[in-house]
Amino acid sequence: MPQGSPAAIQAAWTTAKAHLATVQANLATLQASLATLEGDCDTLYNLGVGDVVDWLRTNATQTLYGFQPRVSVGGKPRRKCSLFGRRNRDAI
After folding, report:
1. For position 60, what pLDDT does the model report?
2. How many Å apart are CA 38 and CA 43, to the nearest integer?
3. For the whole prediction, is pTM greater than 0.70?
4. Cα separations (Å) of 54 from 71, 86, 88, 91?
5. What are the φ/ψ torsions at residue 53 (nearest 5 degrees)?
6. Secondary structure, 3-state, the chain
7. Is the pLDDT assigned to residue 11 strictly greater than 60?
8. Rounded distance, CA 13 to CA 41, Å?
9. 54 C-beta neighbours (distance < 10 Å), count
10. Kindly report the CA angle at 46 between 38 and 50, in degrees rounded to 5?
11. Angle between the 50-64 and 6-46 helix axes, to the nearest 10 degrees?
């Protein structure tokens, strides 16, 4: 394994710590947003629109997995998720 200079190691370590802090802050924001969304889902469910709640939860999960819908050649939305095979797509 190549050896880096102490200055280069220190600079890389400082950069990595800053990136870690950003990840941790983003996670805290995401957790707060998901908690707020759950409150919205509870309200919607109590108003009798559980199908909307299912849609919101499905889309939140797909977003977390990196799912991005695209329009097919025919102009209709097509499910595309490279993280899950055809058999596991309904698990999202």
Report:
1. 92
2. 9
3. no
4. 22, 20, 18, 13
5. -60, -45
6. CCCCCHHHHHHHHHHHHHHHHHHHHHHHHHHHHHHHHHHHHHHHHHCCCHHHHHHHHHHHHHHHCCCCCEECCCCCEECCCCCCCHHHHHHC
7. yes
8. 41
9. 13
10. 75
11. 170
**Structure tokens of 15?**
């950069």
Contacts of 42 (CB under 8 A, 6+ apart): none
Q: Which burial class, exposed, middle or buried, applies to 47 when counting CB atoms under 10 A from its CB (0-12, 13-18, 19+)?
A: exposed
Q: pLDDT tens-digit profile of 19-48? A: 999 999 999 999 999 999 999 999 999 999
Is the separation of the CB atoms in 53 and 44 below 8 Å?
Answer: yes
Q: Which two tokens stand for residue 71?
A: 């329009």
